[in-house]
Design goal:
This protein is α/β, with parallel strands linked by helices. It has three domains: 207 residues, FAD/NAD(P)-binding domain, CATH 3.50.50.60; 120 residues, FAD/NAD(P)-binding domain (3-Layer(bba) Sandwich), CATH 3.50.50.60; 133 residues, 2-Layer Sandwich (Enolase-like, domain 1). It contains 15 helices and 21 strands. The strands form five sheets. Strands 1, 2, 3, 4, 5, 6 and 16 form a seven-stranded mixed sheet that branches. A five-stranded antiparallel sheet has the order 17-18-21-20-19, with helices on both faces.
Length: 495
Amino acid sequence: MEHFDLVIVGSGAGLMVMEVALEKGLRCALIEQAKLGGTCLTKGCIPSKMLVYPADFIREMERAGRIGIEVGHPDIHWDVISERMWKQINFHHTIEENLKNIPNLVVYQGRGAFTGPNSMVISRQGAVDEEIFGDKFLIAAGARSFVPSVEGLEETGYVTSETFFGEKFPQRPWNSLVIIGGGAISTEFAHIFSAFGTKVTILARANGLLNKEEPEVVELVRRQFVRNGIEILSDSEAVSVRSVGGKKYVTVENSVTKHRSIVECEEILVASGIRSNADTLSLERAGVETDERGWIVTNAFLETSQKHIWALGDINGKYQLRHKANYEAQILSRNLFSGEEKQQVRYDAVPWAVFTHPQVAHLGMTEKEVQNKGIPYQTAYNHFSEVVGGIAMGYRKKDEDNGFVKVILGHDKKILGVHIVGPQAAVLLQPFVYLINAGYECRKTACNMAGKGVEDLRVLCPNLGTYEPINDSMVIHPSLNELTAWVFEKVTPPA
């Protein structure tokens, strides 16, 4: 039986830890039952952006008349778009080739399940199950689409993000599409296919579209969806599905009125959330604890209930974002292999972006969360139409798609939340991530130097976690950076 210093389950962010372990001379096993590279590379954020950008381009062409350019209806070459997308996904072949001849590494392409705290059995199609042993384990096995129980759905057939970037990828954009769910994946696919000419209908439950976003952000997205021909059925859910004559028919019930209607479509996309892959790992045999939703419980050092087993990424239930998983992998690699004092993970400044149209990004708390915590605060808004960069793009005060940045500030100028909707929202948000993290780093450094509490640190770091460094910096003119830099001139108390 094979024995390893470290066993890694999952080939997304887990590869980052594996690389450091191999550099340190550890003997490693990598277990992956799907394509190497993880969700982001093979069925998530990377291939989807190869579709999002063309869709963005189409929408920008449609509004080009505002800046004096008339563009005819675009010719969409789905084969070219698809080829570019598959080229990104097929990078997993390169990963596989690179891993084949690495000393001290054995790659198992199959499903791993614990047989005890220090052992796993690997099941591979067409091969005899093999048991291996490890001193340490890293679980980075991710999550998968949650499929609700809907009468006739399995028999009729449907698409998830996994199968879309696999065996159910369409040969052309569908004529019509029903999307079950109103979150990030739903709104991203709605943008993509509506831009390509598909009639899209979203079934959004009681919490509606993008329930993690500010109400005014959601309302702007909703208006643009309607303007682009996307039908949004709020407070609605699918109760049954059937297929007749090559068409699919979804019976929809409104949870408020109980009224039922039928929506015809060519295909159904299920995007109603995700569920943990922990249930595939026989964790109970290893004594690894999960919470009531099936996510692996980890502490501030990413340790599970077994101190020799760690978990990171989607599977620990703390934000399903690749950049969060990468961050955790960096912290864990440092803690395991550097010999330095262990560092805790923190999730105070986790940025979030939804690549729909208009683009959405946020950081920190919503206004409602601030209110619920009883924190004194102020807010400020700045619209694209109020800076030259936005005006140059054709945004006017009266426009329904006139996006904005909203900041929520504590009484001491501390940044509590940032919410942006409009072009390049993800780019515009990033400086705030750096700024907030700079505050935490300053706090940590000053504590080490002075050995004092946070309130005493104002002497050493008077700008601790505030927006003063932005006010004191030069901002490129005219550029969209002025949108976020100048919002602080408009700070007002809440109504």
